Recover the amino acids of this structure.
């Protein structure tokens, strides 16, 4: 659920510059169902974002704006963050350019790293060439060759 709240928060911040707690809770409820536990969990995640300083309050109640942004330039740390991102998604692969610019990672500004370098940094990541200049990064399954997503 944390990934859904992060994705919604990043999307709203990107589109509007602010993220209303009511909008985030409604989007999460649409995805997970309208249950009190879903609402409370979303509130706690938003509160964590505020406590961490990645969201800040505005003059309006329960409307938040972008807080601190953490620039990450270490390829090894980026590869670990990408692994966590892929584990949080239902689809365990994505295009590298979409991944590095994902609104789900709104508190972070990631240095653009070639997919080949990320694969080298993590034995748990694989890559599949998709088109002329697009690479998909994925979680490796057992038995796949590193760096090529199992392609022969």
């Amino acid at each position: 659920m944390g990934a859904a709240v992060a994705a919604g928060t990043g999307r709203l911040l990107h589109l509007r510059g602010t993220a209303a707690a009511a909008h985030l809770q409604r989007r999460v409820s649409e995805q997970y169902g309208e249950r009190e536990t879903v609402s409370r969990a979303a509130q706690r995640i938003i509160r964590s974002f505020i406590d961490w300083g990645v969201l800040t309050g505005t003059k309006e109640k329960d409307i938040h704006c972008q807080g601190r942004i953490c620039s990450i330039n270490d390829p090894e740390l980026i590869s670990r963050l990408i692994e966590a991102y892929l584990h949080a998604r239902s689809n365990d692969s994505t295009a590298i350019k979409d991944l590095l610019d994902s609104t789900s990672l709104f508190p972070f500004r990631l240095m653009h790293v070639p997919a080949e370098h990320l694969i080298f940094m993590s034995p748990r990541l694989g890559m599949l060439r998709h088109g002329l200049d697009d690479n998909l990064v994925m979680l490796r399954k057992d038995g796949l060759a590193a760096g090529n997503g199992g392609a022969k």
About this structure: The longest helix spans residues 36-52. Helices lie at 2-16, 21-32, 36-52, 75-88, 96-100, 115-121.
